[in-house]
Design a protein that fits this description.
With 182 residues, this protein is an alpha/beta fold. Helices cover 38% and strands 24% of the residues. A seven-stranded mixed sheet has the order 3-2-4-5-1-6-7, with helices on both faces. The protein is globular, with a radius of gyration of 16 Å.
Length: 182
């Protein structure tokens, strides 16, 4: 394990089924201290339940305490001995906030929630997983276009704040920002 940098914020980006979740878990497991896995995917339907079960199985023996938080990250109050938080994933959180009951202001709520987690005095490492999305020329309805725009803005905002940014492509982490060796 490398020497730890206090207060490190790490953003792990990738497309669907890229291996970004596994990479984020590996990074979080490389840090000492109690780990909290913040799951944001709401279990809507059988497919979502299967995906949630797969992710829980992947982390079952990695020493994470898990909590579901579908909205309002700023309400999250981890135990005082928690030192590492892994947030899975920003795209789901945005969908929950944007298409849920309180769509207006969702981007600001998410930023405030992330700053809340980042500012907790006991948290040494915050690892955030997010989807890499772009406009690929397809025609999308206005709500989907707005979702893509907001997620890209949030990813850019987080990347600016982050100490380390990785993009995972076909299971291979590519360092975009930060130093090697973490």
């Amino acid at each position: 394990m490398e020497e730890e940098v206090p207060g490190m914020l790490i953003l792990v980006l990738g497309g669907g089924a890229s291996g970004k979740s596994a990479r984020a878990e590996d990074l979080a497991c490389g840090f000492s201290g109690k780990r909290l896995y913040v799951a944001t995917m709401e279990p809507f339907g059988a497919e979502a339940e299967k995906r949630i079960a797969r992710h829980r199985a992947m982390r079952s023996e990695k020493g994470f305490e898990s909590v579901d938080c579908y909205r309002e990250l700023s309400s999250l109050d981890p135990q005082k001995d928690t030192q590492v938080i892994l947030l899975e994933c920003l795209g789901n959180l945005l969908a929950n906030e944007m298409f849920g009951r309180d769509a207006p202001g969702c981007e600001d709520r998410i930023r405030r929630g992330l700053m809340h987690l980042e500012g907790l005095p006991n948290i040494k490492h915050l690892v955030v997983v997010s989807n890499e999305v772009s406009l690929d020329g397809d025609r999308y309805d206005p709500e989907t276009l707005e979702y893509i725009r907001i997620l890209n803005r949030l990813n850019g905002w987080l990347a600016d704040r982050a100490d380390r940014v990785e993009e995972v492509v076909c299971g291979i982490p590519l360092l975009l920002k930060g130093e090697k060796g973490v």
